[in-house]
Amino acid sequence: MFKRTILTALATIFVAISANAQSLRINQGHSHNDYHQNIPLLQSYYAGMGSIEADVFLQDGKLYVAHDKKEIEVDKTLDRCYLKPLAELFKKNGNRAYADPKYSLQLIVDIKENHIGVIAELIKELAPYPGVFDGTARGGIKLVLSGDMPVPANFNNFPAYIYYDGRPYTTYTADQLKRVAMISDALPNYTKWNGKGTPTPTDLVKLKDIVMAAHKKGKPFRFWATQDSPNTWIELEKIGVDWINTDHPQDLTNFLKNRAKLEYVNPTPYALYTPTYKSDGANKKVKNVILLIGDGMGLAQIQAGLTANHGQLNIYQCRNIGFSQTRAANSDNTDSAAGATAMATGQKTNNRYIGMDPQGRPLTNLPDILAKDGIKSGIISAGNITDATPACFYAHVTERDSMQMIARDLLNSKIDLLIGSGAKYFQNNKDKALVQKLADKQFRSFTSLADAESVKTGKQLILLPDADTRRMLDGRGDMLGRSLKHGIEVLSKNKKGFFVMAEGAQIDHGGHANDLPFVITELHDFDKTVAEALKFADQDGETLVIITADHETGGLTLLDASTEKGSVLTSFSTNDHTSINVPVFAYGPHSQDFTGTYQNTEIFKKILALITGK
């Protein structure tokens, strides 16, 4: 009974906190101790900060900006650093703080001592700028005093354009409250939480209560003495804080500006396939291999997809998991060309090389080797079929962008099935007879997956319009899953077995674009394709399914997540590849052979040994 009561109470707390949370805007940044910026004022102003703070001392009849008296410099006056440039910007913007009418600005003058003298001098220094620092006027810059302030009873002794930074423990009359611009306090007064992780439930209640009390008075709230990190910003946002304290205005702006690309919510999860595990891990013959490559798919991308699907993925139905080390011959950070070449040929090569060794000599790929044993192969991509990953299984060039040459290399490949976009590289090739030559090689060409699905035999070249491999966000649909099903149906008629590689090409594209919704929707499509592979493996009993990546893209980090809501908030550290290991999941006979940590070249060697017995 006691346990249920505690859980109910905690649930109530979290519901209340969620209700109090808000979505922060760029203009809700507070540039703390702004004068310490490399370029005071302008750095924060052009980052769109809605609140800028300058500590001041009165010395020799002038107001200087500094945290301590020993920091005072002759050229760092409040007028020179803040008042005059703000007045010039105000005039330039047509008598507005910002050109964008949605943006507002308050200048916080934090008085370190002697507020009577400072305020008197401040009024003098503001005189040359009538109308600029008048928060009562539309578009005016609100002037807010903080630090050593007059007591509330004396607020009205000073001009009406002067506002004050309130405190939660101070009682204000209705008239005094009109002069309070916001309510602030130090975060450590309420919690030992240091900005990492989350506050305790008890502390969350205290923090929420202090913010809600300010809101009930109609005032925004700010905590100072907060850690300056995305995690802190996120947690403060959940609590309902209105002004985010920062010493890094541009970082905060970039985070908030790119929020739509860093956040994803999936209210309704899709259902998973439930494997039978009848042949999983069995020491029996492997007749067929399905290699599924999630281009750019690292553990963070998988975790993001798992969370967004409310804690479940088909990928994680696999019980045997290993790690692939992806470095290229000439760099620890591999690209798709070197990464896929390693899996297709069993040898490391340079970035941008397709099916070539580091000296530029052609390597024999898996489909060509398997063909000698009568095993047929198919290559499928949810993108351009002449792009690096699929190309490594049939082409040989030292520049991955040589897509017409890659298309021509299909003439010398033992591939039996090719599905993807990039038709122009075949149809408008410098070799005008390429399509006919492929037809002479017994390839039957299709420009529609629907047309190809009615043909269950023979060699097939399915070159789809680029629109058919558009992003999932733009409505691609189940092209990849359908293509794999069709490929399996055609290739499985071969009695000696088959090898098929299917690529979730655009997980990588989302990583390069630093676009989380792009990443997750592509990963979910890939994961649904995994279900098709697992289903066939259960039906067949002699099929090994391997799921991996060529590399990780984007340096993805999960900052906040809710499995219950299917929501994820992330950041990216790069728009390029990283060198971290990628997972290898395996299902079916000999799936246990793929546990452990090994070089990506071992994937080729393991497949070859299992499917040919050599």
UniProtKB/TrEMBL annotation:
- Required co-factors: Zn(2+); Mg(2+)
* Biological processes annotated in GO: lipid metabolic process
Specify the signal sequence span: 1-21
* Note describing how the cofactor binds: Binds 2 Zn(2+) ions. Binds 1 Mg(2+) ion.
Which keywords label this protein?
Magnesium, Metal-binding, Phosphoprotein, Signal, Zinc
Q: Which InterPro entries match?
A: AIM6_PI-PLC-like_dom, Alkaline_phosphatase, Alkaline_phosphatase_core_sf, PLC-like_Pdiesterase_TIM-brl
The record's comment on protein family reads: Belongs to the alkaline phosphatase family.
The name under which this protein is listed is Alkaline phosphatase
State the organism's lineage: Bacteria, Pseudomonadati, Bacteroidota, Sphingobacteriia, Sphingobacteriales
